[in-house]
Amino acid sequence: MLFLSEIPGFLTEEECRVVVQLAQLKGLMESQTTASSLEREESDQPLLSLSTEEVFSLLDLNQDGFIQKEEIVSHSRSQDGTWLNPEKLRQILTGLEANPAGMLTLEDFRQVYNLAQHPMQQPKRNLQRQFKQRSKHTWLYLGPGAHHVLHTLRNRVTSLTRLPPALVELSEPLQVIRFEQGDFSNAHHDSSLSHSEAACSHTRLAGNKSALSEVSCRYLTMLFYLSSVEEGGESTFPVADNRTYEEQASALVQDGVDLTDTQETCSRGNLRIKPTAGTALLWYNHLSDGRGWMGELDEYSLHGECPVRRGVKWVAHSWVNVDPDPQQQARYQRLVAQRHQAKSGMEEHYQPLSHSNLHQDL
């Protein structure tokens, strides 16, 4: 059974306005639409064709004219392959680490990116199944130099979840999404089933380069409604609290209707929440493994966004990334800590976590 909490007034009206304005200033791009596994495996090319300067700008999260290692690491947790695939990102990181300055200017980046555009032949990787959606989105950096409203929001997430600050701070940037009339997102899981042949996207750069696939490892989700909607646009949880639900794909088809298709079956969702500006939703995507760490995927966390019938809907997602392998999570945190060792106190802040340091209600 899904644990979900609805929190009215988590953000003020002014904070909602600021986050929306920051997203508009950053620039939004079309969200990825459906693609079959076979189609994605046959093509390792990004869905969007961007110039070198545009890729540099997207990677330069704080827009200071330089690309630092933490910005590359941050994108490794959030990029979805629509404009830069994982292998190119790894090659860019390699080029950055080889630069004595420890960062890349636009001119440096042109050279590194040109090499990444013509890599040696690599075995193709399996990508996780894509879900269908239509919207626009962007990512907002939450680290040093970010807007104070974004820092405040991250601190609230830390306080609410009672997780170690390092876990929250080393997770994905804030994703902001704009749904216009007719836009939607089919039901999906934010996180993934874990298996030995897959690597978590957020710890990939510190992990096994030979992993056959990369998956999202998101222990919990916080969704923030940044606007109210005149009609439609509800968040739907098709199988929440369904005690007869069988955790199989066939169970998502009832009377010949696919419950994941929010365009057709939104009204049949077991739980639907109407967007109200300032309200936040919190749910856990995984169960506990019984030892204080992230366990199996909670199938009941399946969710989607109903089509907007009238008005515009703005939402933001904050995910807390945790690797099912605690040793892999620790290696990743050490990688990030190395970048901050020159800054007073930061090496202690990002020390590896033991099981006993984690949220005890896992």
Automatic annotation (TrEMBL):
Q: Which SMART domains match?
A: P4Hc
Q: Does the keyword Amino-acid biosynthesis apply?
A: no
Question: What terms describe the molecular function in GO for this protein?
Answer: iron ion binding; L-ascorbic acid binding; procollagen-proline 4-dioxygenase activity
Q: Where is this region: Disordered?
A: 341-362
Keywords, A to Z, come to: Calcium, Dioxygenase, Iron, Membrane, Metal-binding, Oxidoreductase, Transmembrane, Vitamin C
Which SUPFAM superfamilies does the record cross-reference, listed alphabetically? EF-hand
What are its cofactors?
Answer: L-ascorbate
Q: What is this protein called?
A: Transmembrane prolyl 4-hydroxylase
- Where in the sequence does UniProt note compositional bias of the Polar residues kind? 353-362
The Fe2OG dioxygenase domain covers 170-322
- Keyword Calcium attached: yes
Look up the domain of life of the source. Eukaryota
UniProt cross-references to InterPro entries, sorted A to Z: EF-hand-dom_pair, EF_Hand_1_Ca_BS, Oxoglu/Fe-dep_dioxygenase_dom, P4HA-like, Pro_4_hyd_alph, Pro_4_hyd_alph_FE2OG_OXY
Q: Which GO terms describe its cellular component?
A: endoplasmic reticulum
